[in-house]
Amino acid sequence: MNDRSINGARSVSGRAESRPPRADAARNREQLLAVATRVFMAADKEPSMRAIAQEAGVGIATLYRHFPTRESLVDAVYQDQVERLTAGARDLLGELPPAAALRRWMDLFGDWIATKNGMLDTLLAMIDAGEIAHARTRTELLTAITVLLSAGRAAGDLRDDVTAEDVAAALIGVFTVAPRSGSETRAARLLDLLMDGLRPRS
């Protein structure tokens, strides 16, 4: 074996150079995660790990060092998107009026749907194998929608007879007929119409 280890540390005077600081490793992982999310979102079919590494401007070994398998990368992207949706509901309410926060959250939901399309085969296999708790994800997303609806009702911005399940079903319908990739304008129009339907009747 040569004097360069698998993680790139070189032996100097019998001692290995210290590994990059933990913060640097975390930043590198987050950058790879962001690139993978973007690639999955734009893909018509599942991209290869090599294609993701090339898009990130790193070698395939670097990608595998952070995500040893395709499944680990898909899981990380999926969980990151779910976290953005669940935490994003309260974050948006801290920045925008409830109705505007809900409309912006719908865009985040569309991004999540688009990202899933680029990793669907692996994702479905992981759900079937019990590696991803799909039911828990659904509960978390419905809770996020409920938080937004409740804030909107309290402010008088949203109807009080709409459930989180209603909104989720409508969003799935919108992004089925108008996927984000190539149909952004149509999707935005349909979401705006949906928001009109969620406002209180005069």
What oligomeric arrangement do these chains adopt? single chain
State the secondary-structure class.
mainly alpha
- Helical residue percent? 55-70%
Main sheet attributes: strand count, strand direction, barrel closure:
2 strands, antiparallel
Stretches where pLDDT falls below 50 for ≥5 residues? 1-18
User: DSSP helix count?
Assistant: 9
Whole-Å distance between the termini? 76 Å
SS elements, strand count = 2
**Overall geometry:** elongated
What does this 3D model show about the protein?
- This protein has 202 residues and is mostly helical.
- It has 9 helices and 2 strands, in the order ββααααααααα.
- It has helices spanning 22-42, 49-56, 60-66, 70-93, 98-117, 120-128, 134-155, 164-177, 184-198; strands at 11-12, 15-16.
- A two-stranded antiparallel ribbon has the order 1-2.
- Helix 2 packs across helix 3, helix 5 (98-117) packs antiparallel against helix 9 (184-198) and helix 7 crosses helix 8.
- The longest helix has 24 residues, at 70-93.
- It starts with 10 loop residues before the first strand and ends with a helix.
- Mean pLDDT is 86; it is low at 1-18.
